[in-house]
Amino acid sequence: MFVDRYGRAAQRARGIAGIARDRFADGSIRTALLRIAAHLEAAAARLDAAAAHRDATAAHGDAAAAGGDAVPPGGYEELPPAAGRELFLAEQVAVDHPATRFPAELGQYVLNVLTGRPLPFPHPLRPLHHPFVKRETVLLHALHLLHQDTAMMTEAPEEWLRQVFTVWQQHARLTDEIRADRARPRSQP
Question: What distance in Å separates the CA atoms of residue 17 and residue 27, rounded to the nearest whole number?
């Protein structure tokens, strides 16, 4: 049912917020992680409010206004603006603080249940050395498998999100290692 989509989106937002709060970091990075979590919690509250509104509308017999079982066209037309704003702000904190090791597209993991749009993948790193190539391949394959695991996605969403964001964290570390490797004189063509 469509109303359940809002609840699942809110659940994902809260799950990612928990990951941000649980991630170990010092100083300004810890502050950034807590800001990401706060924005995601606020988005979850807005999504819950939208679900409650749809439930109340449906209870009064206005199934068409409640959305029924229909999938919204493009999804974003049905996203509460305040929830969208909070997701954007969480993503912006991640972009401004790459050391949080959160993907810039973290909001897509919340919105996916509303839109059905594909989940994000990291940009290719194109490392110069075989060990890095192998690690990147393993990480991308792991992320692909997690994105395809719809059973885990629905039955154990918090565990699924933890595994997904662990892969993203490992990919961010690999990105830093490759960047450092390329900066060494021996890596120059």
Answer: 18
pTM of the full structure? 0.85
Measured CA to CA, the distance from residue 83 to residue 47 in angstroms comes to 6
Domain boundary assignment for the chain: 1-120, 121-189
- Specify the residue for token string 């940009």: 123
Cβ-Cβ contacts under 8 Å for 11 (sequence gap 6 or more): 44, 157, 158
DSSP assignment of 76-144? GGGS-HHHHHHHHHHHHHHHH-GGG---TTTHHHHHHHHH-PPPP-PPP---SSHHHHHHHHHHHHHHH
Q: What is the mean pLDDT of each run of 10 residues along the chain (189 residues)?
A: 77 98 93 98 94 69 50 58 96 97 96 93 93 97 98 96 98 95 74
Residues 46 and 107 sit within 8 Å (Cβ to Cβ): no
